[in-house]
Amino acid sequence: MTAKRLGILTVYALGIACLLSLATGLVFTTYMLYDDEGYVVWTLRQFTAHGHLYDQVYSQYGPLFYLGYGLLAKIFALEWTNTLGRLITVHHWWLTSLLCGFWVWRETRSRAATAIAASATLTHLWQMTSEPMHPGGTTTLLLALAVAAGTESLRRERADHFALLAGLAGAALTLIKINVGIFFLLALASWGWWRFRAHTRMPERWVITVAFAALPWVLMRPFLGEHWAREFATLASAAIAGIVLVSAERETETADNWSNLGRCIGAATGLTAIVLFAAFATGSSWRALWEGVVAGPLQHPNKYHHAIPSLPGAVIWSLGLLALAAGGTKRRWIRTTLLASQAGALGVYFIGLVADPIIFNLRTAMSYFVPTAWVFALSFSPDNAPAERRRLWVAAILAWQYLHAFPIAGSQMGWGTFLWAPLAAISLNDWHRRFQELWGMRGRWIAAGVLTAGLISVGHANFNFASTLWQRRDSDPLELPGSAGMMLPASSSSALRVLTLNARVHGDTLFSLPGTFSFNIWSELPTPTLANTTHWFSLLNVTQQTAIRDRLSQDKRAVMIVQPGLIQFLHDKNIPVNGLLFDWVGLNFTPAFALENYEFWVHRDRPIAPLSTATLFVSSDTAAPWPTRIRATVLLPPTARVTRVELRELRAADSPLWSAADLDSARIELARLNSSGQADGPPRATGWPIVGPGIFQLDFYLKQSAHEWPITRLWLGFFDTDGHRVAEARFTVPFHSIPGIAQLAPTRNQQ
Question: Which of 113-127, 208-222, 295-309 shows the lowest per-residue confidence on average (mean pLDDT)?
Fold first, then answer.
């Protein structure tokens, strides 16, 4: 191996290692309050243990997702935890980026363009950090694999291989997330229609174009009275119509072999039959499978949807370029206009990666780039027809996956548009080649500058990711079962530990509002039934909600974790949060304590000792010898010997506000409590060490005043002689008013 080749391989290895490190670091230092992660991981755990998908284990995703990962877990004896889900997501993310880079390498043989594609794809898919183990990660990897393998088959002129791959990919995607699979198959149809229609006439082209372009309007028909829906349908139709028109214009004179269509259908049918057989074998019924995979998801837009954002001028831009496509892209003035549009859009994209690689990048892709994806698939070179056809195949997938953002424009926006990044890298490389061809030696410098600018843009975006990781370097390990490797801000990790501890000690069953099932993983407590989802108040039917109500009613040690802020958010977005179970919970449960964005609820009239919580009392008498009192309720393990207590702000670099290791700095009183919070007698003075086990109410009388202490950001740590933390406490906050429940139970206790 030559030194040059070794150097190139070393650079590649370093680049891949950087992508993997960024993905791993970002995924393991992010946790979202809405916890879609917990919902997916918990249902995977329940299916692996019980089977009966859709009949008992609720899900809105396809059976292949559960069967595939369930088989993986059984083969390797894996338990579904947050850590496992995040490791899988990391590999989804960086492998998708590498596959996009591979496709660009095969199209361009440009190392710079390959690096741009892989890095830009990683940036575009930053949503992977928000929803680990969501099926969206699996579908993006499958789409990238379909692009890499499918275009390779087309390059080698193996239409039979392409047909098999397309059929398998379409069926797999449909059986994981039905809308993604249908959009993939529609992309295949709209791009490949002309392979079977040699010598098509113009009227037929227009009929087929209109038919495909009308489908977004059919999809969004319940919301066409709203401006955002009409605008999004217009942009989607423009993207699809452009693909159909340009594909028809560039098709060959010879029709494809109809046997390839048979191969595609046969592959899809075969995989579907295998998956359905496996689903039935694990306990799913026909009726439940239909409801879970088809009928249920069709109703989701009516229950929960977000408006799709677009920037000004997006509709005019996309329709204007579509009008040029209708006139024929081989005309010189049209080709010149399209080239100028392509150059301008690429400039905006790569400048945007420097300015705001997260939000602006995504919004411009949704507004300007994806609706005109067909423009960036064109190389405008008469000798490059096969390559253009391959790019149009990718652009067709991109145009149809754009609809993935309906009805929820969240992470779906990134998952549905990530193929824009490698397509942009290829277009940039075309400009590199074009400058070299037009201006010779002088053009080589300009061409080099084009790719260098692209590398700087994506490098800056990934540098922002690295900076984010650097800022998180002092994050606190979560240290809960199933969370190995998770590092979160100290305020978040301590709050999650406190809530989990209380659930484990005070509960036999754990339910949440909305559904946040990571707590079930961490506390190792079951949910009332196997029917679990985040928005259970709108997605579960009356029978399922009644079963949960009955189980909660029977278990007097059932506990709940509630997020009032999320309920208020949904209420403000006019998303209904009500129903049989919601009303019953409001009448029969009450909060015991509130912390950060959470409240811990128990059955009404059930007292508990709120473990790992603290309250602060400040005397109005400035001359008092002990003006400040901290009361903490902690659970000490059997071997605990507390010799030091520290009070600090939740910032790792801050020095303690107060530290007590002797009786000169504080007076301490102690009382033992039972789990209901009842003391064994009046508080009594004590000294060091404080020895477990048991629940203790500790009163610390301080000589310093706490008038200016930031209560919500304070943390109390209990340490042994070796400096190990044996307990902690957070200061509680007032309860929140929850729309709907506040009206049902106006007598809720207030702190």
Answer: 295-309
Handedness of CA 396, 402, 404, 407 (dihedral sign): negative
Q: Is residue 482 part of a domain?
A: no
- Which residues make beta-bridge pairs with 591? 601
Using DSSP, state whether 589 is helix, strand or coil: strand
Around 13, how many Cα atoms within 13 Å sit in the side-chain half-sphere? 6
Using the predicted structure, report yes or no on whether residue 206 has a pLDDT greater than 70.
yes
DSSP assignment of 639-705: T-EE-EEEEEES-TTSPPSEEESSTTTEEEEEEEE-TT--BSSS-EEE-SPEE-SEEEEEEEEESS-
Q: Residue 727: helix, strand or coil by DSSP?
A: strand
* Residue type, position 45, single letter: R
Which residue among 434, 469, 504 closes a domain?
A: 469
Burial 440-454 (b: 16+ CB within 10 A, else e): eeebeeebeebbebb
Whether 376 and 357 map to the same domain: the answer is: yes
Q: Evaluate if residue 513 carries a pLDDT over 60.
A: yes
643 and 574 share a domain? no
Do residue 512 and residue 369 come from a single domain? no
Contact between 532 and 39 under an 8 Å Cβ cutoff? The reply is yes
Give the residue carrying structure tokens 């009303």: 583
Residue whose pair of structure tokens reads 């088959």 in the numeric block: 153
The pLDDT value given to residue 5: 72
The answer on pLDDT for 244 being more than 60 is yes
Q: What is the mean pLDDT of residues 448-472?
A: 88
Question: What would the mean pLDDT of 694-723 be, rounded to a whole number?
Answer: 86
Whole-number pLDDT of residue 571:
87
Whether residues 319 and 458 share a domain: the answer is yes
Confidence band of 120 (pLDDT split at 50, 70, 90): very high
Instruction: Answer yes or no: do 427 and 518 share one domain.
Output: no
Q: What range defines the domain where residue 506 resides?
A: 487-608
Across-strand partners of 728?
A: 717
Q: Say whether pLDDT at 750 is over 60.
A: no
Q: Are residues 460 and 420 in the same domain?
A: yes
**Any alpha helices (H) in 472-517, and if so which ranges?**
490-506
CA-CA distances (angstroms) from residue 341 to 255, 324, 345, 346? 33, 11, 6, 9
Give the orientation angle of helix 159-174 with respect to helix 258-281, to 10 degrees: 30
Task: Report the alpha-carbon distance of residue 403 to residue 425 in Å, rounded.
Answer: 23
- Rounded to whole angstroms, the Cα distance separating 411 from 747 reads 39
- How high does pLDDT run on average in the chain? 88
CB atoms within 10 A of CB 217: 15
> Do 691 and 601 belong together in one domain?
no
Chain centroid to CA 584: 31
Report angle CA 193, 197, 200 to the nearest 5 degrees. 115
pLDDT number for residue 749: 43
Rounded alpha-carbon distances, angstroms, from residue 197 to 227, 416, 589: 37, 29, 65
- Separation CA 397–CA 142 (nearest Å): 12
**More confident site: 711 or 562:** 562
Please report the pLDDT score of residue 508 as a whole number: 97
| Residue 337, token pair as written in the block | 């206009």
How long a stretch of residues is the chain?
A: 751
Asked if residues 339 and 319 have their Cβ atoms less than 8 Å apart, the reply is: no
Q: Tell me the C-alpha distance between 393 and 196, whole Å.
A: 16
Q: What is the pLDDT of residue 449?
A: 80
Using pLDDT thresholds of 50, 70 and 90, give the confidence band for residue 382: low
Q: Predicted confidence band at 103 (pLDDT cuts at 50, 70, 90)?
A: very high
Q: Does residue 566 have a pLDDT over 70?
A: yes
Question: How far is Cα 53 from Cα 40, in angstroms, rounded to an integer?
Answer: 13
- The model carries a pTM of 0.93
For 162, other C-beta atoms within 10 Å of its C-beta total 25
